[in-house]
Amino acid sequence: MPRAFLLAYRAVRIYTPTIGAAQAAWSAVWTRCIFSECLNESTLPVPPGAPPGFSAGAKGLRARTPLLNGLAGCTGAALRSALDDLAATVFPSDCRVCNRPLLRCTAVPICDLCRTSVPAQAAAMCRICGEALDLDIESARFASQHLGEGLLCDGCRTDLPMFERAVAYAAYRDELREMVHLLKYERMSGVATLLAPMLANSILTIEAEAAQDLVVVPVPLFPSKRRQRGYNQSELLAKAALVELRRARPAWRLRLEPALMRRRRDTRSQFELNSTSRYRNVKGAFEVDVDSIRPGCEVLLIDDIYTTGATARECSRALRRAGASKVWVVTLSRAQRPQVQIPDVAMWDNSPPLSSQGYG
Length: 360
Fold this sequence. Notes:
Layout: E1 5-7, H1 9-13, H2 20-29, E2 32-35, H3 64-90, H4 112-115, H5 137-145, H6 154-158, E3 165-171, H7 174-185, H8 191-204, E4 213-218, H9 223-229, H10 233-248, E5 253-256, E6 261-263, H11 275-282, E7 286-288, E8 298-306, H12 310-322, E9 326-334
Parallel strand pairs: 3-9, 4-5, 4-8, 8-9
Antiparallel strand pairs: 1-2, 6-7
Helix pairs in contact: 8-10
């Protein structure tokens, strides 16, 4: 009797005609292991020469209690693995981001690869708004040492925003863009919990500069749009990120106040508009409850995406006029322009090569 039972190539293909091309392609390459001591965590480890729960030798009885505790943990892992095997075989589903088959049971239909494929921003960026600059990291570091104000983009030099800094975890592209789309337009509220660690990491980047007592305000939606969507995605992200931060920074006082600011008129979706129209679209659209805000407080403004900065600028203007001393903007993602490829040579070395005749 073999110790492992495998659903081999032919057996797996029985299930593939009804589960799509993606699952069929996967099953044609992989064999799925249901019970295997060496290939699957479903099998519980058993010490040689002893029954389950006991160690071999004279000390087996004395070691029974800690082994049972360990066995309970292994049982939980085994049950989870068995559930994943059952769900992937009987209820196959594809990842909503990459369309690859899901290999485990999850409340959010996004595979582990897509969850971990969002790189943090690493380019040289504007010190205030976070726009990517056409500079390599070394040039940016050299320039920032000689500029007291730090590196600024053209927009911030021309019209300084009323917020202190705007930071974002990653660029709005690829897997992150698809996950934000699922959160905003597909009513997958569970995606907010999945993305919360990224937003929490971005908030931690302002910890040294911001106050130890921050009022957290998500960018509000107009009531009719909120009812249509079912929730405010910025508020869900803020709540989930605060859960992460209360564990990581219990001494940092972050108070969520979603009712502090409201959108008093229904604005058009920003993605439909160009840069100039976006500023006109949100001008005067936000109103702060002056009776609830504490004069001199610092505010942490949360949103899902920073595009041109029109919404962040207008919200910050309303908050500052209502009495906030500083406004910090943190978003999950940021729309970045394609950067110019900088050649790997000195920027001033554009002269033609010297003549082969030398200097005479």
